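Journal club prep — side note

Before the paper discussion, L.F. wants everyone to see what a predicted structure for a comparable chain looks like in token form. Sequence:
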Amino acid sequence: MRAVRVLVGFVGLALALGTGIAGRADEQSVRLACNNFPPHKIEQPADDGNAGFDIDIVGEALKRIGWSTEIAFMPWKRALELAERGQYDGLCSCSHTKEREAKLLFSDELGAVSVGLFARSEDALAGIGSVADLKDRKVVTVGGYNLEAELITAGAQVEATASDKNALDMLVAGNVDLLYGYELTTKHFIASDPRSSSIAYREIGRNPYYFCLSRAMPGAGDAMQGFNRSLKVMAADGSIRRILDRYHVEFR
């Protein structure tokens, strides 16, 4: 499954990290709002204890610069709103949009995910090559995702829901024609739903994504600089690859 591309390639010389951010020697805590988005972010880990590779990567990068993480799960739209208002320090991960820049800081790229259309059969995908082909089609996506704005621009009949699992349930029940979402997460839910055995997928593109901090968080700029340094070192020393291997996901 080529669902995600993550920055794990060779990085020249590892950058030296300090003992903290802006001279802080004591451990600080970052409060992050997250949506359930397996296997990136897992609200209820299985017996293996895996919390999601985004959470693992972000947590390790912050730990290396003296920060711990406190994570609260909630629907994506609420998580985004609370982070933008500064009621949480940031998001475990998010896509970049121009509108979000005013209230959020974005890290270096964490990876790139496959996005596309799910349908109850291959026939329902006939003649669709891009989002622009979805005019007047009834399509579900998660409310607040950047994908929702793409569908609105294309003139689709958009049904916004609270979660990726809800979106799949609506597709399987026949309430919508198509689901516009993220391959890896939607296929995670398909794998545990016997009703979804005939679901077809067509990739539309690949979206880069990032770790995000609220600009309202004190010291957010320094924290993000330190995070990016950690991320580069983790790519160079193999830490990111070892985290990904625990989730048995192939990358390109």
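L.F.'s comment for the group: The beta strands are 4-6, 28-34, 67-73, 90-94, 104-119, 138-142, 157-161, 178-182, 200-214. Keep this in mind when we get to the figures.
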